[in-house]
């Protein structure tokens, strides 16, 4: 039996939703993770400091008794966002990042940014105070192929924004391409990149071969195998630019298994065993600690967690329920498609 003990991990990109779904999924993340960057794409979105404070209270209420899980709040950047409100919410310690969704890029992104000149004041304020900008790195122009959205975003949006706003600290979230890996790796320490659990495991064949598999559909959409390999290489390399952001994004089955299914994979429950499998297969189990527990806090200028989490490998594969039942309906867990022998020691 092998074991590995890490400082308790954090999730630097998580969707917790609201109401009955929040109550159903919050305990799944709080079981293994100490903190998570909470995505603000509710309906309506979390735009102002006040909205984030109220949402944080709802999250704390949804946690199991005795949980010390800490939600790290974000604000949804709109063309009307007030730089002073952002600065205040950051100064109070409530808000740890601002999230940029290009309008129409993904689930609930209609309030996102169309004209980047309109958010210049906010970006400049963020550069001044060192508040990170988390970006959903996809363009949404209809003439751009969905598999090319990320690469086009880097060249036509991300790099120009960073050049125009020196000092702006940026996280390119849920990187899915070698282009994303190469771009992030070539920058200084004002640039980070998160990688999801599922993008380390699936490529686009998983979604489309042998029938359409809605539970593998997420955004950014999984790319071809060469890109997945580049992500595995980046995540397991020990490079401090890269850290875990699961993008665990629950939708009830009825919203996934339908003619126009929602994007999102649900990995909160079993991310740590899945990552142990991926890192071990890459011969890099020792680098799991950097990816899941150290590189994220270092980027966000927060302390590494004091508690620990131990993973054990056993002969018997681990098992999980196919779905978790929430008050909003059943949510199917991401299926890695291979046996996983790692367990979190309780
Ligand atoms: C996310 C969601 O459902 O909120 N979906 C997804 O596929 N990742 C939105 C997002 O992060 O793009
Ligand atoms: Zn997301």
UniProtKB/TrEMBL annotation:
Q: Where does substrate bind?
A: 15-17, 41, 136, 219, 251, 263
N6-carboxylysine occurs at 99
Query: Reaction catalysed by this chain?
Result: (S)-dihydroorotate + H2O = N-carbamoyl-L-aspartate + H(+)
Keywords annotated in UniProt: Hydrolase, Metal-binding, Pyrimidine biosynthesis, Zinc
Query: Mind telling me which SUPFAM superfamilies this protein's record contains?
Result: Metallo-dependent hydrolases
Binding of Zn(2+) 1: at which residues?
A: 13, 15, 99, 247
What the record notes about the co-factor is: Binds 2 Zn(2+) ions per subunit.
* Cross-referenced Pfam families: Amidohydro_1
Cofactor(s) in the UniProt record: Zn(2+)
Pathway, per record: Pyrimidine metabolism; UMP biosynthesis via de novo pathway; (S)-dihydroorotate from bicarbonate: step 3/3
**EC number, as in UniProt:** 3.5.2.3
Q: Where are the transmembrane segments?
A: none
* Amidohydrolase-related domain boundaries: 11-310
Instruction: Locate the active site.
Output: 247
Record text on subunit structure and interactions: Homodimer.
Q: Which family does it belong to?
A: Belongs to the metallo-dependent hydrolases superfamily. DHOase family. Class II DHOase subfamily.
This chain's protein is named Dihydroorotase
Organism of derivation = Thioclava sediminum
Q: Which gene encodes it?
A: pyrC
């Amino acid at each position: 039996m092998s074991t590995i003990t890490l400082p308790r991990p954090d999730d630097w990109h998580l969707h917790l939703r609201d109401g009955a779904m929040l109550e159903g999924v919050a305990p799944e993340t709080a079981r293994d993770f100490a903190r998570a960057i909470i995505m603000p794409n509710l309906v309506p979105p979390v735009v102002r400091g006040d909205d984030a404070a109220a949402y944080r209270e709802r999250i704390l209420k949804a946690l199991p008794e005795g949980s010390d899980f800490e939600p790290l709040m974000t604000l949804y950047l709109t063309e009307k966002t007030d730089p002073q409100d952002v600065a205040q919410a950051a100064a109070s310690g409530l808000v740890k990042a601002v999230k940029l969704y290009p309008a129409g890029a993904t689930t609930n992104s209609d309030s996102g940014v169309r004209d980047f000149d309109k958010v210049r004041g906010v970006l400049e304020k963020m550069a001044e105070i060192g508040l990170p900008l988390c970006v959903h790195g996809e363009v949404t122009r209809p003439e751009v192929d969905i598999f090319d959205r990320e690469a086009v975003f880097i060249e036509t949006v991300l790099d120009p924004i960073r050049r125009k706003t020196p000092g702006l600290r940026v996280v390119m979230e849920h990187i899915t391409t070698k282009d994303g890996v190469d771009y992030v790796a070539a920058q200084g320490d004002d640039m980070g990149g998160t990688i999801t659990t599922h993008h380390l495991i699936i490529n686009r064949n998983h979604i489309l071969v042998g029938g359409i598999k809605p539970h593998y559909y997420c955004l950014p959409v999984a790319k071809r195998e060469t890109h997945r390999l580049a992500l595995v290489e980046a995540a397991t390399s020990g490079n401090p630019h890269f850290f875990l952001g699961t993008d665990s994004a629950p939708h009830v089955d009825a919203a996934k298994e339908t003619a126009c299914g929602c994007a999102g994979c649900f990995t909160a429950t079993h991310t740590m065993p899945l990552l142990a499998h991926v890192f071990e297969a890459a011969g890099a189990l020792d680098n799991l600690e950097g990816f899941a527990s150290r590189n994220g806090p270092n980027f966000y200028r927060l302390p590494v967690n004091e508690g620990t989490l131990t993973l054990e490998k056993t002969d018997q594969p681990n098992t999980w329920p196919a779905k978790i039942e929430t008050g909003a309906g059943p949510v199917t867990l991401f299926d890695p498609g291979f046996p996983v022998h790692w367990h979190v020691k309780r």
